[in-house]
Predict the 3D structure of the following.
Amino acid sequence: MIHIKNLSKVYKTKKGTVSGVDNVSLTINEGEIFGIVGYSGAGKSSLIRCMNLLEQPTSGEIEVNGLDLTKLSGEKLRKARLKMGMIFQHFHLISQKTVGENIAFALKAANTPGKRINERVEELLEMVSLSDKKDVFPAQLSGGQKQRVGIARALANNPSVLLCDEATSALDPNTTLSILRLLKKINREFNITIVLITHEMNVVKEICDRMAVMQDGKVVEHGEVYDIFSDPQTELTKEFITSVVSFDVPKPILDACTGRILKVLFRGDVAGEGVITDTVQQFNIKGNFLHGSIEYIQERPLGLFLMELKGTDDDIYQAISYMEKRGARVEVIENGI
Amino acid sequence: MEFDVQHMIELWPEITKAFGQTLYMIGISLSVAIIIGLPLGILLFVTDKGLFLENRFVKSTFGFVVNMVRSIPFIILLVALFPLTQIIVGTTVGPLAASVALSVAAIPFFARIVETSLREIDKGVIEAAVAVGATPWMIIKDVLLPEAKSSIVQGITLTIISLVAYSAMAGIIGGGGIGDLAIRFGYYRYDDTIMIVTVVILIILVQLIQQIGDWTSKAIDKR
């Protein structure tokens, strides 16, 4: 659906050239929500802005719906953009026009007949739950409401793709959640492919199907969100995951532990099977939880526990292999065997 | 310095006539400045680097012409434009003739003001319009002008007040007007009464224009 091939974007500055996006290739499937995470300056913003040619890539191809956008210009590019919605961190609504007029603007761009514009504006406002705000100016809306107007405008012409440029970064956590739910609803109901960039791992965890992690203009890791959360490959990805699933145990507590400290990870259904209870019952060991949580990613549980095991080396060794046999992944992180 | 009420009443028809001429010259030159200067200012903005109608040639050509006209002192422009004035209005004297030079001076002045007003618009809003697939004309009509209108009204206020000042020089070619009256009677003839009356009228006029401008600019802003 979106094929990005060897995309590079080089910026010319007074001091020389800076590489924004460095030879990125990605495929985003139809109907999925794809998240791109990275710190600021990682190139994710340049990448998403290249996807609708707000920025002209230096080299590479961007194929959307079978059309190579980099080969288009003028009227053809404008027509292609009608089928790609975009929302922004700071909403970018026309401040001197009402909510209804802002949405109508997008419809006019697609030459929608006047009568149809009114109907469609009402429809869109209802979809984003702002039916009563049609004649209000953006200045009178809250951040979340402004973003809803942004979403309504972006979806006005029934696009196949919605690009979200840090769409929730200016919002508080509750509002972020409600916007994410709305995006998910739109994705499911209209089968719109959503590409979002963010520096908040929570956003990805909440709604994305697949994700990519960017650093220095390159994609360093990509795949299913669940797989990346349960088995991150790069240090950077681990860092991002820590922001959502943190396992900081105060040092005095760790120091007070006399047994072995294990990090146990359960994927999918295993998380609910009581493996740890079984283990402690079957072997001559004592278990002690230090930290633990079950995260639900794409409605699949991912259990992560930090525990202390006390017993003979042999018993502990057997207990670990038993847990591994049951599908857990065990890592001894201190006082290891 | 003394103020002679009798003298003022005697010359009152002269004063009202001059006031009418001032409004006449400003009216014409402001209209021309808006009709030509507004599109010119928009052109200077949208052809700038990174904007949706980026065009270096157009930008630098028009930019050069605008700067050139603006760098000529108004008195010189007034005289240098005689041939053009002759063609357009058929004479080189009178308020209408002076309006030609005032217009020529006001067009680039107002164009730069419009360009600056447009530059104040959040680039993101323009970008969002591009992303939505809007045509350049739609962006100009529905984004640039509405977003800058409050600031453009301030610019019109500034232009009118500058025109009031410039129009005083129109007396040189018999343009008339309040400023001319102040120079002819007050300055050359040491007629304090007329000097005071005209200056007071000008002060009130400028204050009024500024007040109306500020109020309008605020009233139409929806932010």
